[in-house]
């Protein structure tokens, strides 16, 4: 217990100092953990396995993180923050109509998946309803971030219906769930760097989805 407390103090001091070498090593460990989470699932992956994959012993891991949960949190939090902020910025833009904003959001999600692989893969793979059942502060923050993004999409669908851009016989909530479902299934078959680009996939998604949802 005393040894772990000493490591915790050293970890906090190193993080506060913000040294490049420490940060780079921590980022490397987060990526190693993310790859294992992708391959085995978050629940099935152990700290011992993360340490072994990184060529370290388990005790040394605690110099960089407090627990396995911190690896997962750090892997997806920054990406989710950035995506939500950009979605809310797009919603406020007056130069685009709701359909154009939604098309840009689809491109944003696919590009983020591509550029932040495997972190966005983890976010999709570890279903958020399972995360919502956890009571930790970070889990609830992830749920709030997800709800903020969903609110943007639903609001844009609602505004598009009001403006006559979209058909009114499909509710905004159902449309949003259908769009998210199409995107969320992509982790089953899309791997960055192989086949179609993220932009090409986004364009195909937009054509498939919005051609069917537009007001005739």
TrEMBL record:
What SUPFAM superfamilies does UniProt report for this protein, alphabetically? Homeodomain-like (SSF46689), Tetracyclin repressor-like, C-terminal domain (SSF48498)
What keywords are assigned to this protein? Answer: DNA-binding, Repressor, Transcription, Transcription regulation
All copies of the HTH tetR-type domain together span 23-83
Q: Decide whether keyword Transcription is in the record.
A: yes
Q: What InterPro entries does the record tag this protein with?
A: Homeodomain-like_sf, HTH-type_TetR-like_transc_reg, HTH_TetR, KstR2_TetR_C, Tet_transcr_reg_TetR-rel_C_sf
User: By its UniProt entry, which Pfam families does this protein fall under?
Assistant: TetR_C_24 (PF17932), TetR_N (PF00440)
List the Gene Ontology MF annotations in alphabetical order: DNA-binding transcription factor activity; transcription cis-regulatory region binding
Q: Which residues bind DNA?
A: 46-65
**PANTHER family annotated for this entry?**
HTH-TYPE TRANSCRIPTIONAL REGULATOR RUTR, HTH-TYPE TRANSCRIPTIONAL REPRESSOR KSTR2
Q: What is this protein called?
A: TetR family transcriptional regulator
